[in-house]
Amino acid sequence: MTERKRYTCHGKSYDNERDMLVTLVDNFRAGEAFGAELLQAWVTTCQLPALRGGLRTVVEREAWHARVLAQRLQELGSPCEAQIAADVRQTTLQRLGAADISDVDKLREIAGFVTGPSDPVAELRHAALQIEEDQESRGLLLTLLDDEDATVRWLRDTYRQLIDEAAELS
Known about the structure:
Layout lengths: L6 E3 L2 E3 L2 H27 L5 H27 L10 H12 L5 H13 L4 H10 L5 H35 L1
Antiparallel strand pairs: 1-2
């Protein structure tokens, strides 16, 4: 008797590709929509023009990702249900939208999140690479994850540049 293939995403196991895929796409969509909202709150208080310009670009990219993922869910016949927890939303929006927290401190927090021990892009890529049946969704996800990698690189590079500039001034 052959063992049934299992699919995993963010530590959760699924019996079939479709269940994993729908959950993956919906959670990714919710995260991207929140990312756009969150970074837009930061844009409104950002004091560093170069950072603000980059953030505006990332906001648009995140919002576009959310729309594309929502469209794919619709094509798969699944509703958009995933949401970011209310307490996480409120705390994070308040923090990144706060005018009294420096842009460097905000960037340090964001850069730490996206490059920490639990790299969310790597986890999503691992899940997407398990997809065998729905090649359209696989291609869509992998392309969006390439965008996410570019955003992570930009955040890291910008943070390093700001830290280097601060060190030169002291």
